[in-house]
Structure formats: structure tokens, C-alpha cells
Design goal:
Length: about 450
């Protein structure tokens, strides 16, 4: 997703852009439609021999033939993080980091700046629901950047404002230990320019952060500098007020599920307030925020009023989410069950990476146990080779919930068809969730078609 933002940046500048991806996705289809040439076989006959600049992500395997061809034939080859750091070096940079929450927060910040007229160029890790892209440009020399901790990429950035949302252990294939990962976040915080702002979530365990200006945010903890209060749900919309570093902003509205997304909004509001954006413009932007594709995204939304009245169980609510870490899954499932407590909650989860499955199997099990029914798909390997003894059953074996199935992608679609006929529309109603960072997103539209009765 970060690579696609850079590809769009150069395509926007009329450069000839081409590239390789492992599998076709809705994102690559849109990029091809925009005129970017993409191929899906690792074949040196397909690469661009005339390339002047070759950009790669460390997620590409070391034995990738095309990358090694470029490396061994004297092309200019750079990491994605180095190029992003170079592009933004001379700008005013708002860099959003964290093992989860960073995509939503960075997209919220970018939307507030764009919607308010402040202006920014955005490099995002997800597709904005408001603008249907993860990149846009502005004449103003302000950049909103999703700062990726993978491979320590965020250490290439030069923040004027840096935010850290979470430091739960992740990418242990890179860092080895939680402590090493936390050290990297500390290094990131220390890259804030003199006089700049550091924003951290209150209660982060690990190193003590410090900066010339340091603000802490929280969902509702009044010990924080910025926090929400008076939270209530009204017909699927959260209503609340936010105490900021300069005063209270009342009558906030957020049409995005999950209490964690109120916390994400609080973080974005802290940055917008620091930039002196007027409260009314902040309120308007949050009210019109349509979320991020694959972040608690309603694919089949609730019928108006059904979630609060509880009297319309014949509609099917379908949510898709990128969650691929135990804490993200926990927030996703807790958010769905909090919004729709009377409905049966079925989660279809595709684990991402053998190493992550091995390292966090018990955490995945605890989070998934909160659902009423669980379907586990095979692990999506991405850049990895299989690890002996590690599979989706590694997670399932640690779970307590007996309502567990193991299904392939093809079997999932058959199951949804059966589920729609036999179970959905029953007395409790149904919330169906697909989650994962692999290619499970290719199932979203087929599932939607089934649920809408258009799969003939």
C-alpha cells in the first residue's frame, strides 16, 4: 500500500511508472486503469529495461529475480522508505506511527487538513473513503505521512509532528524482541525537529518519551492532555466532546464503528488543534469522515435504525477490516459487538505471515474467542516460506470457542451462501466480519454479491 502511494506520486508527475506485485487486487486494478503498468510474474523479461529509478519494499523476498537483476545491472535502486524520506525532507512533516491505529489517524489528519482548506500532501497506508485514494497532493508544503515501523522504515523520516499510537509487539521477525522494537519507536520520537511536537497515547509501556513539546492523548482518561467524554451512540453515530490542549470542542460526530476510532479521532484532533485549525472546521471534517477502506468498513451497512431498535434482523451487516494483529482483532470484534450486542458475530480471519502466527497464536486465540463463530483460512505467507508446525490450526488449537471451522477461500464463499439461507435472518440477526492483511480482500466483493442476492 505504501508502494502504491509512491507510484501514484510519480504517475501524477507524468513519469512512466510500472511495477510488479505478487497478486492482482482491487488496488492494482485501479492503478492499471489509471495507466500504471503492473505484472504479476517474477520474470526479468517483463521488467522495464529503461527504468531510471527502481523502488522496492523490504517485503520483497531476497531471491526475487527482477529485483536482483536491477541490483546486479547498475540501476539506481532505493528502498521505499529512503525515497519517501527524500521526497518529504524539505517539507513540514506530520508523521503518524504505531503498530495499529496509524492508518486511520493519518487519514483522519489528512482529511481534516484537506477538508478545512489548510492543505496537505498525503502518503497514506490505506484508501481514504472520502477521496478513494491513498495519495493526494497540495501546493502547501505540508506532508501527512503514515510512518511504517516495518524494517525501521520510519527512521528515514524528518518529523515536525510525530505521533505514536501503539507499541504492541509486532514484526518480531525484524526486531527479535519487544524491547528492540520499543527502542526503534524511541529512536523515531527523537527524530522530531527542534521545537516540534510529539504526541503519544497515554499509558504506552516501554521507554520514556520526551520532546520540546509533548502531548498525551486518551479515549477518556482525564489525566491525558487530550481526551473524549460524554460519549454516546445515536443510530450508529458516536456523539462526544473532546477536551483539547486549548479548550473543549463539543457536539462531535463520528460515523465510524468502534470506540478505538473515537480514540483515533482524539489523536487527530490533537494535531489539528496544534495546527490552529478552527474547532468548527475540525467538527465538520470529523462529521464528514467516511473512514478508510478495510478499516471497520461497512460493506453491507445496517438498515437505518436497526442497530438501536433491534427490530430489523432480516438485514445482514457485513464489515471488512485489515486487522492482522491480536490487538487489532480485539478492537474490531469488541467494537462490532458493542455496536450490535444482540446480533450473532461471525468472523472470517486469514492469518498473515507464518512468523506472526507463531509468535502471537495465543493472542489471536483470545481475541477471536470473543466472536460467536470463527472461520480460519489458511495463512497468507506474503514474503515468507512455510514454518514447520505452524498453520491456522496453531491458532485454533489455543481457542476455547467450539464454533470454529477451517475453510479455504473457495469454501468460504460456499459457506456464506449456506449461511445466508440457513442462518441469516434468524431471530438474533447477523454481523459478518472478514479480517486480515493478505488476499482476503479479493473475497469482499463476491461475499457482498452473495449477501445482496446477486451471485447468480
Amino acid at each position: 500500500i505504501g508502494m502504491s502511494a509512491l507510484a501514484r506520486y510519480y504517475h501524477y508527475r507524468k513519469a512512466a511508472v510500472s511495477g510488479y506485485d505478487k497478486t492482482p487486487t482491487p488496488l492494482t486494478a485501479q492503478m492499471e486503469k489509471d495507466g500504471i503498468r503492473i505484472h504479476y510474474q517474477d520474470d526479468v523479461r517483463l521488467l522495464d529495461q529503461e527504468a531510471q529509478l527502481v523502488v522496492y519494499t523490504p517485503a520483497v523476498p531476497r531471491d526475487h529475480q527482477e529485483l536482483n537483476y536491477y541490483l546486479s545491472h547498475d540501476y539506481e535502486v532505493v528502498k521505499r522508505s529512503s525515497l519517501l524520506g527524500e521526497i518529504t525532507r524539505a517539507g513540514y512533516n506530520i508523521c503518524i506511527a504505531g503498530t495499529h491505529g496509524k492508518t486511520t489517524i493519518s487519514t483522519m489528519v489528512a482529511h481534516i487538513l484537506r477538508d478545512s482548506g489548510y492543505g496537505c500532501t498525503a502518503f497514506l497506508g490505506g484508501i481514504s473513503g472520502n477521496y478513494d485514494t491513498n495519495f493526494w497532493e497540495s501546493d502547501r508544503n505540508v506532508y501527512v505521512i503514515e510512518a511504517d515501523e516495518y524494517d525501521r522504515s520510519f527512521l528515514k523520516l524528518s518529523p515536525d509532528v510525530a505521533l505514536i499510537s501503539a507499541m504492541d509487539p509486532d514484526h518480531l521477525d525484524i526486531y527479535g524482541t519487544r524491547e528492540k522494537m520499543e527502542e526503534s519507536f524511541l529512536d523515531f520520537s527523537q527524530k522530531v525537529k527542534p521545537g516540534g511536537l510529539l504526541v503519544t497515547k497515554l499509558g504506552l509501556s516501554g521507554p520514556d518519551f520526551s520532546a520540546d513539546l509533548h502531548i498525551r492523548y486518551s479515549l477518556q482518561d482525564t489525566k491525558a492532555d487530550v481526551y473524549a467524554s460524554q460519549i454516546r451512540v445515536d443510530n450508529g453515530t458516536y456523539r462526544f466532546e473532546v477536551t483539547t490542549q486549548t479548550g473543549v470542542i463539543s457536539d462531535m460526530e463520528l460515523k465510524m464503528g468502534g470506540m478505538h476510532n473515537i480514540e483515533n479521532a482524539v489523536a487527530a484532533i490533537a494535531i489539528a488543534t496544534h495546527l490552529r485549525i478552527e474547532p468548527d472546521r475540525i467538527k465538520s471534517a470529523i462529521r464528514t469522515f467516511k473512514g478508510v477502506k478495510r478499516r471497520f468498513e461497512y460493506i453491507v451497512p445496517p438498515t437505518t435504525g436497526a442497530q438501536t431498535r433491534g427490530d430489523d434482523h432480516n438485514d445482514i451487516i457485513y464489515i471488512d477490516d485489515y486487522a492482522h494483529h491480536p490487538e487489532e482483532l480485539n478492537a474490531l470484534i469488541s467494537g462490532a459487538k458493542g455496536l450490535f450486542p444482540d446480533r450473532n458475530c461471525t468472523v472470517i480471519f486469514q492469518p498473515h505471515l507464518f512468523s506472526r502466527t507463531r509468535d502471537f497464536a495465543e493472542g489471536f486465540a483470545r481475541s477471536l474467542d470473543k466472536a460467536d463463530e470463527i472461520i480460519l483460512m489458511p495463512i497468507y505467507p506474503a514474503r515468507e516460506l512455510p514454518i514447520e508446525g505452524v498453520s491456522s490450526q496453531t491458532i485454533g488449537g489455543a481457542m476455547q470457542n467450539p464454533r470454529l471451522r477451517y475453510l479455504s477461500k473457495e469454501e468460504v464463499l460456499d459457506y456464506v451462501k449456506t449461511m445466508k439461507v440457513a442462518e441469516m435472518g434468524a431471530s438474533r440477526g447477523e454481523v459478518l466480519i472478514t479480517a486480515g492483511a493478505g488476499n482476503i480482500d479479493t473475497l469482499v466483493e463476491p461475499i457482498r454479491q452473495i449477501l445482496m442476492g446477486n451471485d447468480d
